[in-house]
Specification:
InterPro entries: Kinase-like_dom_sf, Prot_kinase_dom, Protein_kinase_ATP_BS, Ser/Thr_kinase_AS. The chain has about 375 residues and is an alpha+beta fold. It is built from twelve helices and twelve strands. The strands form four sheets. Strands 3-4-5-7-6 form a five-stranded antiparallel β-sheet, covered by helices on one side. Strands 8-9-10 form a three-stranded antiparallel β-sheet. The two termini are about 20 Å apart. The structure holds adenosine-5'-triphosphate (ATP) and magnesium ion.
Length: about 375
Amino acid sequence: MDKDNKKALKLVFPSPNQSRTAHRSSPQALPTSRDRVRATAHSDSGKLQFSTSEIYDFTADDLLDLGEIGRGGFGSVNKMIFKKNEKVMAVKRIRCSNVVDEREQKRIMDLDVAMRSSNDCSYIVRFYGAIFKEGDCWILMELMSISLDKFYKYVYERQNQRIPENILGQITVATVHALNYLKEKLKIIHRDVKPSNILLHDRGDIKLCDFGISGQLIDSIAKTKDAGCRPYMAPERIDPEFSHKGYDVRSDVWSLGITLMEVATGKFPYPNKWASVFEQLYQVVQGPAPQLTRHYNGIDFSEEFCSFVNTCLIKEEKNRPKYQTLLQHSFIQLHEKLQPYVHPEVSAYIQNVLESMSNNGISQFTTDVQGANPVCW
Ligand SMILES: Nc1ncnc2c1ncn2[C@@H]1O[C@H](COP(=O)(O)OP(=O)(O)OP(=O)(O)O)[C@@H](O)[C@H]1O
Ligand SMILES: [Mg+2]
């Protein structure tokens, strides 16, 4: 790679007026009926809402910590119980004390209302409320059984099996519907689609998380760092010369393609041994897009699934479809029709894998499985 090309690879993070939420003044984005539960901006107390009729005032003191269940680049996720009604939930705590000032906190808490609205969509992890405590943000949400990254790594690396295509079909249907809901109903673009942000519940649910407050905070923090762990980024997000009109849902479609290919094949689709960040970014921007074939990594895939993944991975943003077109794709249409029948099968499959993990002394909440982690920097 020559020097000029290195220079051309500029990491792009959104400016404040290019945030994840667009058109915030739209009545759809801010349903007035829910304004009453809006949390007080930049405060350490908030409203915890489990249903339209079950709403509590709360502070961090109302929560009992049951221990860590996960850790990401920006903080940790703990299992906690709300003492007033004994509801168990997942609490994501993002360290942002030195990054997010009071004005930014207020802007971020404005997303609270949109987040609560997302509870109407069954493909999105339920959001209960958020507070700032000592500068850190606590996001309270539904506790799911496992994230897709830990799940697939266990299946491929420990069980030496594959995730069946009917399960991949349901993961695809759930994620595309969730992304489409965020865009159409809440005017939100996700921007961080990856396996760790798709969560599974052993009752058979597949849900997307980490948009809105979490996403906005991570953007704010990322702006203060040189770079983050962004191997799922579309070429046009890495190199602005590829993009004409700023951020578009089609960048999330690319990340979905990378995610599906990783989860379906058990391997991150780019080589894992890059010498540097630049080499990795260069490959995404200058190299060919990964393509799924009918026989890949010793696994067979249907023509419809390959076609869906490869459609998401069209390198030119302008030729990559948006959700309305993706929802018409034969792979989605087929698995949408199957959904009511396979939901119990999905539940049994997830339970089975969780049971196997437990029998092997592996917790669904820790990162015991060493795996095909994409390079982070
Ligand atoms: N609602 C939840 N229910 C159950 N587990 C969760 C929930 N939210 C997050 N987790 C677990 O916590 C882990 C850490 O989540 P977090 O969002 O902080 O980081 P990440 O998505 O893994 O990575 P990154 O920080 O790079 O975005 C996840 O990988 C997941 O396993
Ligand atoms: Mg996450």
